[in-house]
Amino acid sequence: MKAVRFIEGGRPPEIVDIAKPEPGPGEVLLRIGGAGVCHSDLHVLDGEVPFKGPFTLGHENAGWIEALGQGVTGWKEGDAVAVYGPWGCGSCHHCQTSAENYCENHASLPTFGGGLGSDGGMAEYMIVPDPRLLVPLGDLDPAQAAPLSDAALTPYHAIRAAQAKLTPDATVLVTGIGGLGQMALQILKATCSSRIVAADISADKLETARKLGADVVVNSGAKSAEEEIRDLVGGRGVTVALDFVGAQATIDLASSLIGRDSRLTIVGLAGGTLSYNANTMPYGSQVMVPYWGTRAELIEVIALARSGQIKADIETHDLDEAVKVYDRLREGKVPGRAVLVP
Ligand code: NAD
Ligand code: ZN
C-alpha cells in the first residue's frame, strides 16, 4: 500500500510502497478515510522533535474498521471511527482517567502515537494498538472528521481548562487562525459567550475569523496591534489568551495584554520563550502549556460536530500530493485544514 513516510529530520516526506499491516492480538486494522495535515508535522519534518524514522506520518486520523485482531470484541467491521491520537500506557492514573495526553509513562513509551514515532494514517491502512483509542463517528464522514482528533480536540482541551474564566464579561484573545485557531473560534462560540478577539498576520485568515464569529479581528503583524487591543479591553486586560502560534511575537503580545487574574495558554510550538519574574506576569495570572486532549474530550468534540456546532473547513488531496501540501501549509497557503485521502 502507498504511505507518506517521515525518514529523518531535515528531509521532506517520501511516498513509498509498504506492506499492508495485519492486526495482532488486541489490535484493530483501520481503513483510512482521511488523515489531517497538521503544522506539528512540519516541526517533526524539520527535526525540531527528535523522532527516529522511518514511520508513516498522519496523527489526525479517521476511517472504517477493516479487521479486528484476536480478542477484540464490541466493535464491528465497517464502523466509522476517529482515532484518539496521544497514545499513553493505558494503565497509569492519567491514562485511566482518559487523559492519555498526560501519560505518566510517556518518556518510556516507544511512540507518542500513530504518525508521531510509529506508523500513522497517511496510508491506506493503519494499525490502532487498542480499541480504547477509537471513538465512534456515527454518520460523520471520516475525511471531514479526521481534523476533529487534533485540530479540534487540542483547542477544546485548552478552552475547557479555561472555562471558569470564559464568562460573558470576559475577553478572549485567539492568536493564529489556522487549522487549530479556526476550530477554537467555533468551540468558543458553541461553549461560551465571551467577547472574541482574533489575531493573525494574514488578511484572509482574519476574514475567515470574522465569518466564524470573532467580534474583533486584529492584524497582529501591525505595530498598532497591541494598542488596538489594549484600547478595547482597558485596565481589565485580556482574560484568556489562546496562542496557536507560539512565536516570540505572539507570546509577547499575549503576555503584555493579559490582565490580573487571567490565563495565558500557549498551544503553538513556534519556538518562542515566556520569561517570568515577580514583576513581569500580572498577579493572579495562570499559564498553561496544554498538550492535545483527553479521550473523553474527543467524545465531546465529536458530539459538537455531529450536532453541527463545529465543522472543519477541509480540502482533500491524494497521498501523492503530500509534499506539495506540506509546502503550502508552510507558506500559509492552506485556508483551513488539508486532509489526505488514500
Ligand atoms: P496552521 O499552519 O494551520 O495555522 C497557523 C496560523 O498562524 C496561520 O493562520 C498563520 O497565518 C498564523 N501565524 C503564523 N505566524 C503568525 C504570527 N507571528 N502572528 C499571528 N499569526 C501567525 O497551524 P496549525 O496546524 O493550526 O498549528 C498551530 C500550532 O499549534 C503549530 O505550532 C502546531 O505545531 C501546534 N500544535 C500544538 C498542539 C499541542 O498539543 N500543543 C497540537 C497541535 C498543534
Ligand atoms: Zn499512562
Automatic annotation (TrEMBL):
Keyword Oxidoreductase among record annotations: yes
Transmembrane segments: none
Organism: Novosphingobium decolorationis
Family (UniProt): Belongs to the zinc-containing alcohol dehydrogenase family.
SUPFAM superfamilies recorded: GroES-like, NAD(P)-binding Rossmann-fold domains
Domain named Enoyl reductase (ER): residues: 10-340
Gene3D superfamilies tied to this protein: Medium-chain alcohol dehydrogenases, catalytic domain (3.90.180.10), NAD(P)-binding Rossmann-like Domain (3.40.50.720)
Enzyme Commission number: 1.1.1.1
Co-factor(s): Zn(2+)
Protein name: alcohol dehydrogenase
EC class: oxidoreductase
Keywords tagged on the record: Metal-binding, Oxidoreductase, Zinc
